[in-house]
Specification:
Largest sheet: 3 strands, antiparallel
Mean pLDDT: 71
Oligomer: single chain
Order of helices and strands: HHEEHHEHHEHHEEE
Number of domains: 2
Structural class: alpha+beta
Low-confidence stretches: 117-125, 184-219
Strand content: 5-15%
Number of helices: 8
Number of strands: 7
Strand order of the largest sheet: 5-6-7
Amino acid sequence: MSTQALETLPAEIRQQIVANTITVIVNHDSFHTSTPLNGVCKTLQADITEVLRSWLPGPNSLEPIPNPLAARNVKSVQTHYEKLAEASNREWRGIEKITILIFGTELPRWVHNYFSSNLLEDVRCPDWISLFHELRELPETVKCVHVDLTPPPAMQEFLERYSTMQQLFWYWPVRDHLGVLQGLGGQWLHFDHHLPKAEHNAEQDGWHIADGPTSYLLW
């Protein structure tokens, strides 16, 4: 429906349409509401302002939470709208379902510095630990937590570049000591660079890339 068509509708219908487009965005610092109708025209902007005075989130009103640490602010969302519902003598079931992006929407700031100084250590995404800690802080009304394991493009690209670098890092010492390793009876050497997994064929003396398991434990 065009903006002009929306403006011709009665205010009650316009505001119902507006209410169905509102979502809650939770971030590190707090939360805020959003709607694609923001800034479209003065009439709809006035409708948004009016609707938000009494709007309560529905079952699917929360946008995916960008990382586990931000999940702590779900409690603030719950408190805010509980007070609004109480002030207007309305029943509200509370936040019942949330989605958390475990790998976040951007490449974590710690990645480059950590990897460059700890090439030989196990590297795990610390957000896993954060997830289980933050789950304890969720409101009691939350009955379903969907954990989205899809890595954002920036993280995926970095993991692929990091894995390639590690293959080269390990290739030379493995080749130099290949005779010793063959003497121990090993014909295949497996390195768990999981995205992707690198394998070295002792007979062919070359590398090839194979799809590794869906895991982001890099070593």
